[in-house]
Amino acid sequence: MAQTKFFHHGRFALAGGVLPDAVTAYRTYGDPKNPCIVFPTCYGAKVADNEYMIGSDKAFNPDQFYIVTFALFSNGESSSPSNTPTPYNGPYFPAVTYEDNARAQYAVLTKELGVTKVYCVAGFSMGGQQAYYWAVMYPEFVERFICICGSARTSPHNQCFLEGPKAALVNAVDFKDGHYEKNAERGLRAFGRAYSAWAYGQSWFRRKAYLKNGMYTSLDDWLRAEWETSFYPQFDANDVLSLLRTWQLADVSKLYAHSTMDPSTRPGYMKVPDTFGDLHATLGAVKAKGLIMPSRTDLYFPPEDSTAEVDAMKSNATLVVVESDWGHIAGGGGCEEDTNFIRDQTHKFFRETS
Amino acid sequence: MAQTKFFHHGRFALAGGVLPDAVTAYRTYGDPKNPCIVFPTCYGAKVADNEYMIGSDKAFNPDQFYIVTFALFSNGESSSPSNTPTPYNGPYFPAVTYEDNARAQYAVLTKELGVTKVYCVAGFSMGGQQAYYWAVMYPEFVERFICICGSARTSPHNQCFLEGPKAALVNAVDFKDGHYEKNAERGLRAFGRAYSAWAYGQSWFRRKAYLKNGMYTSLDDWLRAEWETSFYPQFDANDVLSLLRTWQLADVSKLYAHSTMDPSTRPGYMKVPDTFGDLHATLGAVKAKGLIMPSRTDLYFPPEDSTAEVDAMKSNATLVVVESDWGHIAGGGGCEEDTNFIRDQTHKFFRETS
């Protein structure tokens, strides 16, 4: 049984400010002598939730690999609005980007765990977006990356979709501009409801898969049991919003764009690249081998975006579409058949690139 | 210039109760001696908004047809929470179904306007759903119907999508369980934001069509100008919710299911049909000729649902998919090319069935 560990960075610069003692939560699986797989969390996940893809019969086998899972900043385990002391608590928590997360994770790997090379960075959804950042930011360190139902840049439609749940939460009667004394139950339950219809394909609903073979009696029953509670009570409202901001800021071609640090005092690795804002050129320069797995029916990370991104990476990346009506959730462990397909494609990718 | 007229029904039974003096708002265009086209409103529309399809160069030519446009109950012009006196005001307004709307519109046509046969009932979105109801409820009266971006039954996914904007509104700080003294601005603006990403196809966003050729500078700029204001201030929050309930209750195979009237006292035309709940059989019995025009990229009335419904109607109905990336809005007048395509297909349908 893996334990969650906490790495203290001390003073650590994020895009929107500096935390006096930033913390990254992580878990490790397997022998540190084996090739390393880095596997960051997705939206609405705790670090333990990544275990759906870890096991001897899963995509990532701890008998063969040294697997390190990371909690994203703002997930409630790594530094987040809910666990950071004044003056960076709650609504005062600074903006965080994927590059901040990747830098923090890199620090844990190199300073604490002695990792000198990463065999593969893999992730689902926000985790998949992070995998792109890893490939761009650490070309000499990352050999492979896998992006499941994610993208290198959050598309305008994806941004717009996120504005819906966000509007439901920030205008809710108990959110109080983030200054609630008790977690915003109504806001978070509304957030879940406004999120729900985006998570699966239309045909998944058409065949009433939400009834879960008789577990629920109606759409509303399912919404109440699975979506009003998908964030409440286990996630803090300010955390949910901060994590959403990281998602919305994603654009791997715009590294360090959101940093408030004076450009003249930034370390070398934080220099803005010449290809700033040019996604095609940024992806064209990626050295790591990529496996990009969108779901056919994903409503907010549609396969069209993945196709364009794979084309930009030329022969370095492979596109494999998960043929599923589970929409985005196809990559999140909701459907065993899809999870097994992703496992098999992952193993094939490892064989063919090793 | 057409004027809005108001028909007073007197005491009128709706699904959820009886209004002492129900009102239907409508407009007429053209000569009453010409064949009659009935054209009810969609969600978030006033009766005048239907003019985007009325004109000598439009789908419905007032030189050839007698066109009657109807405001749906709860749109703020026909009887609605916002304009109904105590005891049925605001949150106390009874539930309304499409069958109530069709019955009310039928009364206006036959009692006030002397119409004895309808050449075509046509509508977009909720208006298109109403067209299905007309065809099922008045088989001897309706010769043709056109459903643009609508369906005969609100699918589970469509229901679920609607729960998002609804949750944003009903949990908003100024909604106050419908007992606001001033229209719920924050709730309605959140409602608009939670609705926005559903209205267009993903590729419409990908090509940044929301910037409207330089009219806006960012996604947020467009959201503020076009979506936060799509319901506020011109629509009342309780109206918006009541109309949404009509939409969610749509199932043309379940006529009178929601009526609170004692079945033994219902008039003959309100008897529940033998095919209750059987959409395939209900549609199979439709006599009117149907033209069903979904948009290829409509996220909540996807063409798959229309295909199944057209199949059920056999040779009586024709499916024509609008090939557009404007999503649902393709049918709502947002894109001139799509509007013209729908016009041309409408004229073709009229020629081939006359």
UniProtKB/TrEMBL annotation, chains A, B:
Protein name (record): AB hydrolase-1 domain-containing protein
SUPFAM superfamilies: alpha/beta-Hydrolases
InterPro entries: AB_hydrolase_1, AB_hydrolase_fold, HAT_MetX-like
Catalytic site: 125 (nucleophile), 298, 328
Superkingdom of the organism of origin: Eukaryota
Residues of the AB hydrolase-1 domain: 56-330
Organism: Steccherinum ochraceum
GO molecular function, one term: acyltransferase activity, transferring groups other than amino-acyl groups
Entry's family note: Belongs to the AB hydrolase superfamily. MetX family.
